[in-house]
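Consider the tokenized backbone below.
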């Protein structure tokens, strides 16, 4: 079996690339290497890595030839990066997804698996853990574009019969993530004994999901899901950002002070007070859902990654 992974050299993409290659799947990666190449050296000679842009329609069509699935992960992300580049963020999402759909239809690809985001929920999770049917509330250009693509993919199933899955990831963490995201940033600050900087009160919660369980969920859904469905991939537990900082400080035995700083005006995402998801739909479909305790996940990450280096 052959698949195309856009954004396959990124954090989540490199884990998916490794997993599928290990399973004997022929993997073609399309990535503009905006964030460098996170694919492990031992995998590189077993895959085809094309440095290129998902906005290049002819290239996407060519690479989708004979592919059973397209995993579409190429995106611009990171709270600051998106806030500074809203237009390019949206263009990459909208143009990229349009090209992936066009290529899938032209080349007879069975299914598109799209990386959406829990960011589409915005402030919706104030009182309860969000399921896929709750009223959504995307506020950033990134989240709006993700929601647009979810709707577009549903329409392409209704109009053209193209099967798809939109996956709403909840704060994925694990090896090879870079410091655009909060967990690697806190580890880096703690290991350098620099202040660990927490935006706002630190009381805002997030639902942290391990990359390994994210990949398992994604692969299981690829095999099972029919039509054009949306699934949360959430750990169903919350931790507030201040607790996260304290925990990482303790794990690393750091002398860093934990510093609460005002959230910059463009960091809209930090004003979302609560984000926790329900993975019931995922569980009903696959019999699996992520459940790694974040404290265990952080301990493993620290032991396997940061202490060795
Ligand atoms: N990490 C998370 O917690 C999280 C949460 C929600 C959703 N997501 C989504 O999951 C997907 C993967 O995220 P990630 O954490 O691995 O991020 P990442 O930045 O590590 O990976 C994205 C990859 O896309 C590539 N890319 C960017 N623009 C491109 C373009 N125009 N053409 C080709 N490649 C391009 C980048 O070089 C990068 O390798 C993204 O779609 C993201 O929006 C991630």
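A designed sequence for it:
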């Amino acid at each position: 079996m052959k698949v195309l992974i856009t954004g396959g050299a990124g954090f989540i993409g490199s884990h998916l690339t490794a997993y599928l290659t290990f399973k004997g799947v022929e993997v073609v990666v399309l990535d503009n290497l905006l964030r460098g190449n996170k694919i492990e050296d031992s995998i590189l000679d077993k895959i085809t890595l094309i440095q290129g842009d998902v906005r290049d329609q002819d290239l996407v069509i060519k690479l989708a030839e004979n592919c059973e699935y397209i995993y579409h992960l190429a995106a611009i992300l990171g709270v600051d990066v998106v806030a500074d580049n809203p237009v390019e963020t949206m263009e990459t999402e909208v143009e990229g997804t349009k090209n992936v759909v066009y290529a899938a239809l032209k080349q007879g690809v069975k299914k598109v698996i799209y990386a959406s985001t829990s960011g589409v929920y915005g402030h919706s999770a104030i009182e309860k853990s969000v399921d896929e049917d709750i009223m959504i509330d995307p506020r950033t250009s990134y989240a709006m574009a993700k929601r647009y693509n979810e709707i577009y993919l549903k329409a392409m199933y209704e109009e053209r019969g193209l099967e798809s899955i939109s996956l709403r990831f909840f704060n994925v963490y694990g090896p090879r993530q870079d410091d655009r995201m909060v967990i690697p940033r806190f580890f880096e600050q703690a290991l350098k004994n620099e202040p660990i900087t927490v935006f706002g009160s630190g009381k805002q919660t997030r639902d942290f999901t391990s990359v390994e369980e994210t990949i398992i969920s994604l692969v299981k859904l690829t095999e099972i899901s029919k039509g054009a469905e949306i699934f949360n991939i959430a750990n169903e537990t919350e931790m507030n950002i201040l607790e996260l900082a304290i925990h990482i400080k303790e794990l690393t035995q750091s002398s860093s002070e934990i510093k609460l700083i005002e959230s910059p005006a463009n960091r809209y995402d930090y004003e979302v007070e609560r984000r926790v998801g329900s993975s019931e739909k995922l569980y009903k479909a696959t019999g699996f859902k992520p459940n790694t305790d974040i404290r265990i996940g952080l301990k493993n990450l620290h032991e396997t990654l940061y202490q060795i280096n």
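The radius of gyration is 19 Å.
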